[in-house]
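Record type: monomer structure entry
Structure origin: computed from sequence
Chain ID: A
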Amino acid sequence: MRPLAAVVGYGRTAFGESWDKNFEELLMEAGIRTFRSVDEGLSRAQVEACYFGGSLPQAISKTGLVEAYMSRELGLMSPITMVGGGSASGSSALHEACGQIRGGSEIVLVGGIEKMSDRVKKIQDDLMFDADRSEFYSGFTSAGLVAAMMARYIYEFGGGDRVLCREAFARVASKNHHHAVHNEFAQFRRDLSVEAVLRSSLVADPLRGLECSPISDGAASLILVPPERAGEFTDTPIYIVASEKVTDSIDLGCRESMTGVPATELCVRKALERAGLSIGEVDIGEVHDSYSPHEVFFLEDSGFAERGRGWEVVSDVDGFGSEKHLAYENAAGERLTVNVGGGLKADGNPLGATGVRQVCEVVSQRRGAAGDNQVGGDVNVGLAHNLGGTGGICNVQILVRDLG
């Protein structure tokens, strides 16, 4: 297992609607936390390159030359590259940064940011930049596209248990809210019953309002170094052993399947092959659940569950009891804890920050630094999965604590 890079620093803001902070202040807060997290210290002057993700800063925050804003706020004159990719822009920035490290750079800063509340009344239109314009002009919203995928899935795989199949999607949202209760940075730190999800407003049949991630503001960042230098900065480096990116057609109608995300299937497979691992060896997964159906699709696309049986795996997670985190178990007896901090649904989903935040969560759990939200047991392998749109882009990073 040969790592691509090591994470020696990480930080994030709390996610939510930050009416009292602007785009730059969120960026600065995450940056300060990140530099302060480096055990042996690191100055901004040592940073050789920066990659940042943001979905729509120009449209949402009226922020044009984003790289120059970042240079001013972080006090950096290193080359800064803004990376696109819609809701996958943060993980796309990380993917590029891994390449920068492999190309010879010694210290690279990665970040993601979004200030969605600045344009809350127009956000549904803005989200459709991640879809084909023909879908927009025909009346779809981003939620409507996922609802079409969800409806087709229930039709194909629900069989005689379509009520239970439908309920499984609501169970995903309920489970992720439970995981967020002890996450100090999460937007929604409260339990949510399956019944409450199913009673929430209908957004696009059969998708309900509480199965959709919220409007969120926030930022997150990481510091990467070559694996062989990690010990200079921290005693607890976390290694990125795979970073893969796959693209697919932007419009749903041109995909091979509507009941899953083909880009996820290919991207996860490539990442696992690169890391020399199987999906059964992954301890925790930070999965893109901007809409709850995506978590069910991931279980199948990743190979953790059989095709058409992901909803049954979800349905087997019943009741919370005293457990902080609930693991899925597949037919082979393998266990996977998904979205330990609440996922996009409860932790929040500031588009450009999400992919970086997912890796921050994995790093925090690997270091045993998640506080009250620490997952029990020995946690070594984590996977982060981030989508652009309904699956036009998929990025997957795999991280480990121990390389043995």
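Annotation 1: The chain has a mean pLDDT of 93.
Annotation 2: The longest strand covers residues 238-247.
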